[in-house]
Design a protein that fits this description.
By secondary structure, the protein is mainly alpha-helical. Helix content is 44%, strand content 0%. It has two domains: 1-55, no CATH class; 69-199, no CATH class. It has helices at residues 2-10, 23-34, 72-88, 103-122, 139-143, 156-173, 179-184. The longest helix is centred in the middle third of the chain and has 20 residues, at 103-122.
Length: 200
């Protein structure tokens, strides 16, 4: 792979170039690189008819919820959609697609995932060296809103995300959630973000 990457940089290959990913082209080049005696025949190697690659970040971000619009839960869900939908509102179950589906399903998924969401948003309250997990939303998700990592820990939207996850946990357990208690159970042992049936 490293050789193929170098050959792409030199112009001898284009499989890792700035164009749509073409599995057939990559596999054919990989077979040649490995010296396979009888490489497979691949269809659809010509990517000329494919559209240019486009980053999700090129699409406009969703607008913020209007101040005072809707009930507090609807506003919180709108904020999750604003900051987290780029990764978590997809058809794929990884990363967990807890924002995909109709409103009732999204609320149920947020409740299922509340422990992990709470831990991830609370990571923003810790210094980088003290974080045991990547904070969410991640730094790159803030760029499209022109929010710096230094500004975000004090941002009211982060507080709203944290408070909503905390309120869900409070309704489930009858007590205020504490990061220390959740981390004592180890992140990997917290309730999964999707019900087992949804992961298939």
């Amino acid at each position: 792979m490293a050789r193929m990457a170098r050959r792409t940089v030199s112009g001898a290959l284009d499989v890792f170039g700035a164009k749509p990913f073409r599995r057939a082209s990559l596999m054919a080049a990989l077979e040649r690189e490995l010296g396979m005696a009888s490489p497979l025949e691949w269809c659809c190697v010509d990517g000329g008819s494919l559209p240019p690659a486009r980053l999700d970040a090129d699409s406009p971000p969703p607008p913020p919820p209007a101040p005072g619009a809707g009930d507090p839960e609807a506003r919180a869900v709108a904020l999750f959609q604003r900051y987290c939908a780029q990764c978590h509102r997809t058809r794929d179950s990884f990363p967990p697609n807890f924002l995909a589906g109709p409103p009732g399903e999204v609320r149920a998924k947020l409740a299922q995932c509340a422990e992990r969401i709470f831990v991830r948003v609370k990571m923003w309250e810790l210094g980088p060296a003290a974080r045991v997990k990547t904070p969410m939303p991640p730094v790159y998700a803030l760029h499209r809103y022109h929010i710096s990592p230094d500004q975000w820990p004090q941002h009211p939207d982060l507080a709203a995300l944290r408070d909503h996850a905390g309120e869900i946990l409070r309704s489930q357990t009858g007590r205020d959630p504490r990061l220390e208690d959740l981390m004592a159970r180890h992140y990997e042992h917290l309730r999964g973000c999707l019900p087992a049936a949804a992961k298939r």
